Write the structure tokens for this entry.
Amino acid sequence: MDPREALSRTDGTPLAGTGVPLGAALRRLAEADPGRPAVTVYGPDGVVESVTRRELEEHTNRLARWFEAAGVGEGDLVTIGLPNSVAFVEAALAAAKLGAVPQPVSHRLPEPERQEIIELADPALVVGGPPPPGGRRHLAEGFVPPADLSGDPLPDRVSPQRLAVTSGGSTGRPKLIMSGRRGELSGADVVLMGTDGTMVVPGPLYHNAPVSNTLDGVCAGNHVVLSPRFDAETTLAAVERFSAHWALLVPTMMLRIWRLPDEVKARYDLSSLSTVWHMGAPCPAWLKEVWLHWLGPEKVWEMYTATEAQAGTAIRGDEWLEHPGSVGRLLFGEMKVVDPETGQDLPAGTVGELYLRPAPGAPPPYAYRGAEAPSLPGGWESLGDMGSFDAEGYLFLADRRADMILVGGANVYPAEVEAAVLAHDGVASCAVIGLPDEDLGSRVHAIVQLAPGAEVDEEELLSFVGDRLVRTKVPRSVEFVDWPVRDDAGKVRRSALRAERSGGAA
């Protein structure tokens, strides 16, 4: 079934629908086929760890009983700061079995930022990382529940929110995005992911898409293969090794995989893949196109939405070839384009600020803790993205409003410049920001990480970009760095990069 048809069967949002509690779904799977693999962590050296359905069911039951004895109850948040691992999945499912809410955070967060999030979340328990101050209950990484705790099933409970994920730490004080969906498996999840297959999810579990698809995927009956940390060749090896039918990527991963030597890509059989989803950031058109020709356009899907999930679009690869650059037509909820200065609706073909809202009658898809969304009358909310619809209703993204660079009165969208820079074979990652300029107001500055062994100087790179963009959009300066500009989830902290290079002014 076309995923768009599956989602259209809900009551108007992709997260709607009452279903089976995640804990009950896992219990039924363990009873039906206890020896089937449930979660595997696969790294460059092979399998790191793996658990069957029965093992996952019993481990999470014991852990949930320990959580409960430690004071975790229905509706409480449980902060999980672990690396990608079986332990991460077990902690999240143990919380869900108590009706508590998993609240993932990066295990690499600086301690001040981590503590800010913990204070905002006020969790009943913190799993992983150093003990938080103030005597808050804490569970160290590597903890194993006592063997005398029962692994038998618990009473079915449902989390009031499926997840509480963090956002905004790159631009100011963090906020929590509390999912409007309960901790249940819906029929749409099963259709979108399939069942009794294998899903490869190489992204970090502290981000919404990887963790939500992992939990839903396991409880839908799939074997989910995680990566300790994203590695391009290892992702291809995992697809072949486990005959994966489904994979979740972001454009940064797609670029790193495509940059592998041709003989390395050809080494792996990817024919088992029937569905590859990508989301999380704009995908350069040239990169999208090579992937469509490589895997087959009918296998590659793109979704544009946010963790808040007010609305979203989707497009399949063969449809994209007819509408290159689009992120698809409306899939759920409602969207419109607004003039950011006047607040007036804009016609097709005009770039403005995107506003979103759920479909009429749909339940609230999220709630913030620690922030409020910019809104217009009628329940319309902005996430800061710029874009336009064409006459057929296809959405084309420009960039985030806060990241737009005004150069001598002309709007320059960093994502477009980054796509041109990334088209150079010698570039591994990049970010484009605006820096103060006395003459033009702002100048375009590119921060570039070169691919291993590449020798590219500023003149060559700017000449390459100049062949692809008008003069106004070509960077005035290039800064070469030896670290990945984007993380494994494809995210970049442009505000922090600007502040570091402009005397603290973001």
Summary: Residues 404-501 form a domain with the GMP Synthetase; Chain A, domain 3 fold (CATH 3.30.300.30). The first strand starts at residue 20 and ends at 21. The chain has three domains: 3-281, 302-401, 404-501. The mean pLDDT is 90.
